[in-house]
Amino acid sequence: MFCWTTVLIIRTLLNVVVSAEQDVPDSEVFCVFMDSCILPCSFQSSRDDDVIHWFQGTGRQIHVHSFYNNQDQLGLQDQNFRNRTSLFQDQISRGNCSLLLRGVKVQDEGRYEWYTNTIYGSRNSFVHLRVDAPVSEVHMSQEENRITCSSEGIY
């Protein structure tokens, strides 16, 4: 009898923990078109053999950046992210796995997943990137009684 009660209590507690984890909303980051942007990520580093992967989309669709064997591993990186991503390698041992994305494009908008694996276990989470392209310059011209306003790069 005691054993079943213990099992039921443990199972109930696990269900509460799992439900709480599933209800955690994505982090949301707003980035300005063509600027650099940081997608946040933190984990418990083992200071050795840390594995970090960043993906765009759900279900690990597009490889954005990978790090393992104490160095960047960009062989599977999608060409749209080439030469635009980096990690703060001097801070990985302190648990910072944030991704620096340079030259943000409209196509970068969407959901990103980060995944870490250390001797302490695996962890993943999601960051939703929103791209903002504010109006920086407006051109006005007048021809007779017609005024035309135009701008570029607005999103």
UniProtKB/TrEMBL annotation:
Q: Which residues form the Immunoglobulin V-set domain?
A: 37-131
This protein's membrane topology, according to the annotation, is: Single-pass type I membrane protein
InterPro entries from the UniProt entry: Ig-like_dom_sf (IPR036179), Ig-like_fold (IPR013783), Ig_V-set (IPR013106), T-cell_Activation_Regulation (IPR051713)
Compartments annotated for it: namely: Cell membrane
Principal subcellular localization: membrane
- Provide the GO biological process annotations: cell surface receptor signaling pathway; cellular response to lipopolysaccharide; immune response; negative regulation of T cell proliferation; positive regulation of T cell proliferation; T cell costimulation
* Keywords noted in UniProt: Cell membrane, Disulfide bond, Glycoprotein, Immunoglobulin domain, Membrane, Receptor, Signal, Transmembrane, Transmembrane helix
Could you name the domain of life of the organism this protein comes from? Eukaryota
Q: Where is the signal peptide?
A: 1-19
Task: Tell me which stretches of the chain form a coiled coil.
Answer: none
* The protein's name: CD276 antigen
UniProt lineage? Eukaryota, Metazoa, Chordata, Craniata, Vertebrata
Pfam families, per the entry: V-set
Q: Can you quote a single GO CC term?
A: external side of plasma membrane
